[in-house]
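[job 4417] fold queue: 2 targets
>>> target A
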Amino acid sequence: MTAAAPIIRGDMATKPAATLAATEMRAVNPYRFRRRLKRLWLYISVLFLISPAILFFFWMASLSLKNEADNTAYPPVFIPYPPTLANFVDVFAKNDFLTYTINSVIVSFTATGLALLLGVPAGYGIAKTKATKAAVLILIARVTPGLSYLIPLFLMFQWLGMLGTLMPLIITHLVITVPIVVWIMIGYFEGLPVDLEEAALVDGCNIWQAFRYVAVPLARPGIIVGMILSFIFSWNNFIFGVVLAGRSTRTLPVAVYNVLTFEQISWGPLAAAALVVTAPVLLLTLLMQKEIVAGLTAGGVKGG
């Protein structure tokens, strides 16, 4: 007698292992497909939102690399052929861009440094004392247009005989940079754990030592964000420079304005000058984007 073969019940007797694996993959694929579809839709939405800025930047780069004949041609020529650097040479030859660059660096770095020196302790004090009215006052100073401060500041600097120097620009840029730093640091210091500072006070530290050795190291991401944003706003400021600066103390945004002439608009040199002004801020933003996102998100969460 021969032994009877074992009876295998269910689908296992008829479907091989490969068929079972394919069935499991088909069960999982709809979830993966929906997840990939959502991610693709997110990328398309982000590209749609930033496409005007990207198109504007590439069009500006195209104008700077073409001659005037191609810049005024119809239909428009988007890809420069052959590309030329004559517009950049023309900008630096006809304008003292090196001096204007040094002026912008001095004004922006000094205004940013003073904003950190004043704004970080002010934000800490407002956050720890819960001075809501002071925070609202800082917010009002932040959203008020800089043009509102221009006339009284102009009259004051004219009376002091400081017009045409870099000092009025540095002082007026503090109107922009200090509220930015204070407002960012208020939200960040409010989110720091209180236990660490209380432990430092119990161990014998005074309030300034607790601020220096405990709060400031913990608030480093927020300080970096405030520094970057202050530098960007100071670097790009135009209205204060065009009114308060002299011929030799102009900053780069004012220098771009001076490229315009009453005879015609030279699009090539204008775009080249705009790229020279935009490049440092763009590179800084790209290099520090992780720090910016980390600092803003950490300061936006209570106890983060």
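>>> target B
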Amino acid sequence: MKTDDALHKELLSAWEETYKKGQLTLWIFLSLKEGPKYVSGLQESIERFSKGTIHAEEQSLYRTLRKYYHLKMVDFSAGKGHKGPDRKYYHLTPLGESLLQSFVERNIQLFFEEPLKELLLNDSITAKKITP
């Protein structure tokens, strides 16, 4: 039988894994909102923004960017690589910028408004936290 701490860690890990897969678009778009980036630059931004909790695989990013390019949400331009061939520097298109803004308004801003803000900042929630 698992201890409460072990069960907590296991369930939190599974929930975070599901969350991460569902939020890759948000992290990519936020990174590109900061400015054009090549794939490894995107990986670095995503890790920095998420404080190391999100690690996007290179192939996942390429696949996702290719899909978003075909949907006209991102575009790219060729730029010089440091030592090798030219790189693709990805950026949001006006459609991508508009989608990000709409997503944030509908799904993110509500966390900064009552009653969710109060629930998330309520000390009774943090007092019940199990130490990982």
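[job 4417] complete. Note on B: The longest strand covers residues 74-79.
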